[in-house]
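Please check our next protein.
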Amino acid sequence: MNFDFSDEQKQLRDSARRFLEKQSSVAVVRRVLEGDEGYDRELWQGLAEMGFTGAAIPEEFGGAGLGYLELCVIAEELGRAVAPVPFSSTVYLAAEFLLAAGSDAQKKHYLPKIAAGEVIGTFAYAETAGEVTAERIKATVSGGKLSGTKIPVADGAIADFAVVAAQGGSGLGLYLVDLTGPGVTRTVVDTIDPSRKHARIVFDGAPVEQLGSGNAESVIEAVYDRAAVLTAFEQVGGSDRALEMARDYALERIAFGRQIGSFQAIKHILADMYVSATLARSNCYWGAYALSTGSAELPEAAASCRVSATKAFQHCSTNNIQVHGGMGFTWQFDCHLYYKRSNLLALNLGSLSVWENRLIARMRARNSARDAA
């Protein structure tokens, strides 16, 4: 299979890069990182005005109606810019849950607001450390009221609403909750990347509205597969930028009268970074193909690109610091921005080991089905 983005999609990528270079500069990222606001409001509104927040939302619900491939190239540029906005929580998760399981009324209420940048959404799932399963969900809904605790909720400190997984009368279900309403207490959780505000959310009789009536576990798995591909593109964007930073520094830094990039040790580091980033991009292109075509390969492709992109971003961001030497560890240099984001994204949607186990399980299932045929 040969896959590549179209010329129009590449033009969209270029447009997104120019916009983010201007609106999501290092100064903007540092201001959010060091402040208490949680995200850059001007950047968030700018993304909405560009149509990025509604890229994959159908036009009938106020979106641009473009598609997942366009969202993939936007995600890649957000990763390059380490953009301090709740894009993934709102667009990859909250909007996708609404599209997958929401009623027509729920879609008409929330999706136009997401596309316009008027609301921030998130998904509240985990309650303890480790892989999340239906059996480990203890939050409950009774009489239209939600009780329980979720931690850590990505962008939970700034979100307006959440899709929450909780036990209802017929088992695990999905529910919409107004995080600004009664019965909700939020506490900011410190993470390695303060430019993305996570939170511990306690629900004590919070009013809820059920989202869908089908199998919640299958909906969660399907949305997570889509989000895994999109998050992987963010990671690939960050990997490429970390590699570029390391290369540029290796070409300009002089030691013993020579560019340090001419030293074999530095060459090997840069080569390994390139291989890692390129392998991740290859897997992500498979994920993009499967996502955009609705292919049955998506579960395996999503796990594959998630694993490779997570490893690549962590590898490239770490070795970017190493190439910069002692200066790479300082606050003044920008290496730590990518290191922080790489480690945060490595845990979003489940850890690396969770996705490695999913990949193995899905490969075994495919092989078993092939053997049975």
Residues 216-252 form the longest helix (37 residues). The mean pLDDT is 95.
